[in-house]
Amino acid sequence: MKRLLFVCMGNICRSPAAECVMRQVLAEYGADGRFQCDSAGTRGYHVGNPPDPRMRSAGRRRGIVIDGSARQVNADDLEAFDLVLAMDPDNLRDLRQLDPSGRHHHKLRLMVDFLTGHEAGEVPDPYYGGDDGFEQVLDLLEDSCRGLLDQLENGGDSPA
């Protein structure tokens, strides 16, 4: 079973949405038994909190249940997970700092690396914006989760 970890800054908007979107995509394609998904944040601001209500609402409009409880990523996660997907370059930098030896850097990727129908340099943080930002995040996540699954299923063990 492949273990996937989705990471943003606070683990209340983008990364729990990515985790839940990926679970839905896996279920749609009958691949849910081959993957385990989790999410975390690079900062501990929201540890224990549920996902942002605006993200949950945006997900509900698409039939996606976005749930979970925020937690902070740690160095052990880099060992435990097969692939760690950062929502933006700052998150990726923070993940690399958890691995000063570089031993796990091959597992660290940007979520947007798997986009197939959109172009973006990051999954932008919608926290301080309006509802349209949450919709944009879900558009990018639905695209990149499908691209990620395609890469994992058809592109070998390592999407690097």
Q: Your description of this structure?
A:
With 160 residues, the protein is an alpha/beta fold. It has one domain: Rossmann fold, CATH 3.40.50.2300. The chain contains five helices and four strands, in the order βαβααβαβα. The protein has a four-stranded parallel β-sheet with strand order 2-1-3-4, with helices on both faces. α1 crosses α5 and α2 packs across α5. The longest helix has 24 residues.
The overall pLDDT, averaged over residues, is 95
Find the count of extended strands (DSSP E, 2+ residues).
Answer: 4
Report the radius of gyration as a whole number of Å: 14 Å
Helical fraction equals 25-40%
Structural class: alpha/beta
**How many domains?**
1
Order of helices and strands: EHEHHEHEH
- List the uncertain runs: 156-160
The CATH class, by name, is: Alpha Beta
How would you write the strand order of the largest sheet?
A: 2-1-3-4
**Number of H- or I-type helical stretches:** 5
The amount of beta strand, in percent, is: 5-15%
Intertermini distance: 18 Å
- The CATH topology assignment is Rossmann fold
